[in-house]
Amino acid sequence: MSRSFDGSSKSPPPGAALSESADERRRAHHRPMDGVLDLAMEPGDARKAGLLLAATELYVAREGHDVSERRIFAELFRQLLPDTPASQRLVIARLLAAAPAAPLECLSLLAADPDNGIAAAALAGEGALSEPDLIARAASGDAAVHRAIAARSQMPEPVAHVLLRHADLSTLKVLLARPDCPPGDRVLELLSEREEMLRALAADLARRHALPAPLLFALFLDLDRTGRMEAIAAAEARALAELARRGDPKLLNVAFKPAVLEALVGAALSGGVAVFAARLAHALALPAETAARIVDDPGGEALVLALRALGTGDSESGRVLVRVLGQTAPLEHLRGLIALHDRVTPRAAMLVMEGLCAGPAAALAQLAATRKEAPRAVLGRARAAGLASPYGGLSHAERHDGEGGRTVSPPSSPAVSPSRRDAG
Question: pTM score, two decimals?
Answer without folding.
Answer: 0.72
